[in-house]
UniProtKB/TrEMBL annotation:
Record protein name field: Nudix hydrolase domain-containing protein
Gene3D superfamilies per record: Nucleoside Triphosphate Pyrophosphohydrolase (3.90.79.10), Winged helix-like DNA-binding domain superfamily/Winged helix DNA-binding domain (1.10.10.10)
CDD domains in alphabetical order: NUDIX_NadM_like
InterPro entries linked to this entry: NUDIX_hydrolase-like_dom_sf, NUDIX_hydrolase_dom, WH-like_DNA-bd_sf, WH_DNA-bd_sf, WHD_NrtR
Superkingdom, taxonomy of origin: Bacteria
Coiled-coil ranges per UniProt: none
Amino acid sequence: MTARHERASAILAVSTVIFALRTDDETGGVPQVWLPLVRRIREPFEGRWALPGGPLWVGEDLAFAAARTLSDTTGLTPSYLEQLYAFGDADRSPGAERVVSVVYWALVRSEEAERASVGDNVRWFPADDLPELAFDHNVIVEYALWRLRTKMEYSRIAHAFLGERFTLAQLRGVHEAVLGRALDPANFRRTIEASGTVVATDEYLTGTPHRPPRLYRYNDQIDLADAGPLPRQQHPFEGRNA
């Protein structure tokens, strides 16, 4: 058997990208997308920040392993956890053994993010301003951000950042934070109401100095992440080995 047809041997690992909306004094209190990173305490890339993750153990399902490593490193147990992609370039991990990572992504609300276990080796970073990470984790985060922003355009994914009841202004704030740009309030209202993804309730937000805004809820007949096929022509990694 030639080397070209030699059976590959690899370690299978899982990693998770966790997104939350957080504010920072430098942004004037404007919410941005953040994610927690873990400082590596061993080689390769000792001292660098990386995504939470670890090896897949015998008998573990992939989703269980992703949830386990996430809980072990950050203490977070998100309700939304979806498989993102598999990254397996032959040279993505220095050393003799090849590592293939199945990556999940998770979304948590701001109040959940505040309960994360942070310290010297776990810290939150703005997703659009990351240091040089270990392995190919900068590429992974870039892909996860593209996925999140694409889904914001056609699904009810913003629900993962909100409570069960919300105003249209709060919903627009989530879209603006994820997309990184301001949206016209009137156009946003028309688009959302025409989409059928939200339903007006008979409740109103209390404690506001002006006329209380109406609260909405998501249409339960529309799945959290369902919206049809991804627009492949916009795929940033088309043609690349991931």
